[in-house]
Amino acid sequence: MNIGRASKESGVSAKMIRYYEQTGLIPAADRTASGYRDYSDTDVNMLRFVRRARDLGFSVAEIGDLLGLWRDETRESSEVKRLAQGHVHELERKIKDLQDMVNTLSVLIDSCRGDHRPHCPILQRLETDQEDEDLSIRRRAGAIA
């Protein structure tokens, strides 16, 4: 089947299929006599695997590892589990980091009057690295008096 049909059946855009081939994540498709890519049902199944792994947030490198394990019938499931657990830990770290960002922004939003005056604690915090800085009204360091 051509790349358009493989894209439709797998849910992976033709552009991403070409990218995955170019980077070596998936093997290059066979070619027809006229030079067009020709994908098999096995290729489409592999593309679905890649799409599902991407949907779960795995990186391209991790997907490469997963594909290697998927193809290796002598693998131990403990290897797959270890990789998935590592990914979960990374996702949990990212969730914590995002929650910290939400908390910080919420404090800043609460401290901003949002009125006609130019003072803005949100911009003030972006200007400095000090997280425990007093957010009371003060003139910006580079402001003109």
From TrEMBL:
Protein name: Cu(I)-responsive transcriptional regulator
InterPro entries recorded: CueR, DNA-bd_dom_put_sf, MerR-type_HTH_dom, MerR_fam, Tscrpt_reg_MerR_DNA-bd
GO molecular function annotations of the record: copper ion binding; DNA binding; DNA-binding transcription factor activity
Pfam families: MerR, MerR-DNA-bind
One GO term describing the cellular component: cytoplasm
Residues in coiled coil: 81-108
Organism whose genome encodes this protein: Mesorhizobium denitrificans
Subcellular location: Cytoplasm
Chief location bin: cytoplasm
Keyword DNA-binding set for record: yes
One BP annotation, GO: positive regulation of DNA-templated transcription
Annotated keywords: Coiled coil, Cytoplasm, DNA-binding, Transcription, Transcription regulation
Lineage summary: Bacteria, Pseudomonadati, Pseudomonadota, Alphaproteobacteria, Hyphomicrobiales
PROSITE patterns: HTH_MERR_1, HTH_MERR_2
Residue ranges of domain HTH merR-type in the record: 1-69
Keyword RNA-binding: no
PANTHER family: HEAVY METAL-DEPENDENT TRANSCRIPTIONAL REGULATOR HI_0293-RELATED (PTHR30204:SF94), REDOX-CYCLING DRUG-SENSING TRANSCRIPTIONAL ACTIVATOR SOXR (PTHR30204)
